[in-house]
Amino acid sequence: MRIVICGSMSVSKQMVEIEKYLREQGHEVVIPENADKYASGEFQAEDSHESTKNKIEYDLIRKYYLTIKDADAVIVVNYDKGSIKNYIGGNSYLEAGFAHVLNKKLYFLNDIPDMIYGDELKALQPIILNGDLSKIK
What we know:
Blueprint: E1 2-6, H1 12-24, E2 28-30, H2 35-40, H3 48-57, H4 60-69, E3 73-76, H5 90-101, E4 105-108, H6 118-123, E5 127-128
Parallel strand pairs: 1-2, 1-3, 3-4, 4-5
Helix pairs in contact: 4-5
């Protein structure tokens, strides 16, 4: 299965680990551009302004939409961030929405966060893995 991983660059190390595990299980896996460089420390987390600039300059949102379009499934890697348990940021929320609209299998690594758009996340009807990647079939 071709799986696209989504998540904040703050969990890039976990995304790289999940990519490795899924590849070992025989899946084709795509992670966000430069996630491996963030995971290794080669790149540092950007401030919001720099992140926005890069998303526009490199058309990152549209590129990842096209990547999701060619996939079988999307997994959102959602760990705690600050005081928010199982945080899902704006980009991952968009990407989950793309997966839903495109009728892709949608997985959340952990439960749906208690956030302002929690109801919308529930409406996407993701498969909650509760941290167990072996549930991906």
